[in-house]
């Protein structure tokens, strides 16, 4: 009588002679570190763990901590947004990743100033366009989020900020 093989048995037979190269092993370690770093950061940002707990779990990485610091720095830099509260991300950069947040703060301030100036200009343009159509008054509140030009300007400011932040990581 023939024995029925499980899926696992079939997979094990087919992969019996396969081995991973050093590059594949390093890529797998980087992927695992990235996922673990993202998970820890998200828990902290969601308020599920405190900064102390984050530091504690971070120290559990041991010898992988140095590689993970670069990954965590990159993840935090990518998460910075000039229109949100970046305090928690800056705290992680400073206290866990060991990154000098001075240049990061300056780049963020420039982006915020650019957005503020662009916001004022865009609001004025929308008001002017509405006035030309006969819509005006103190109750008029232009909706920037619905304006395609504002979305483009906002996106460009974010892209410039992230390019500046990633250049800081490479230095």
Describe what you observe in this structure.
By secondary structure, this protein is an all-alpha fold. The chain has one domain (23-170). The chain has helices at residues 7-14, 22-45, 51-59, 65-79, 87-95, 101-132, 148-170. Helix 2 (22-45) runs antiparallel to helix 3 (51-59). It is elongated. The relative contact order is 0.09. The model has no long low-confidence stretch (mean pLDDT 88).
Structural features:
elongated; 70% helix; mainly alpha; 171 residues; 7 helices
Write down the oligomeric state: single chain
Based on CA atoms alone, the radius of gyration comes out at 24 Å
Quickly count the domains. Answer: 1
- The secondary-structure element order is HHHHHHH
Structural class: mainly alpha
Average per-residue pLDDT, rounded, comes to 88
pLDDT < 50 stretches: none
Beta fraction: under 5%
**Number of strand elements:** 0
Broad shape: elongated
Note the main sheet: none
Number of helices: 7
Q: Termini separation (Å)?
A: 67 Å
Short description:
With 171 residues, this protein is mostly helical.
């Amino acid at each position: 009588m023939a024995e029925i093989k499980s899926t696992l048995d079939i997979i094990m037979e087919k992969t019996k002679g396969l081995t991973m190269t050093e590059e594949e092993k390093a890529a797998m370690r980087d992927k695992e570190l990235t996922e673990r770093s993202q998970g820890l950061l998200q828990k902290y940002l969601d308020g599920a763990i405190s900064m102390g707990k984050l530091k504690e779990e971070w120290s559990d990485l041991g010898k992988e901590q140095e590689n993970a610091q670069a990954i965590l720095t990159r993840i935090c830099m990518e998460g910075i947004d000039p229109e949100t509260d970046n305090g928690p991300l800056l705290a992680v950069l400073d206290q866990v990743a060991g990154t000098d947040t001075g240049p990061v703060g300056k780049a963020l301030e420039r982006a915020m100033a650019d957005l503020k100036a662009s916001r004022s200009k865009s609001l004025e343009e929308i008001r002017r366009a509405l006035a030309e159509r006969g819509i005006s008054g103190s109750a008029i509140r232009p909706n920037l989020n619905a304006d395609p030009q504002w979305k483009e300007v906002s996106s460009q400011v974010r892209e410039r900020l992230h390019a500046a932040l990633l250049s800081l990581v490479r230095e």
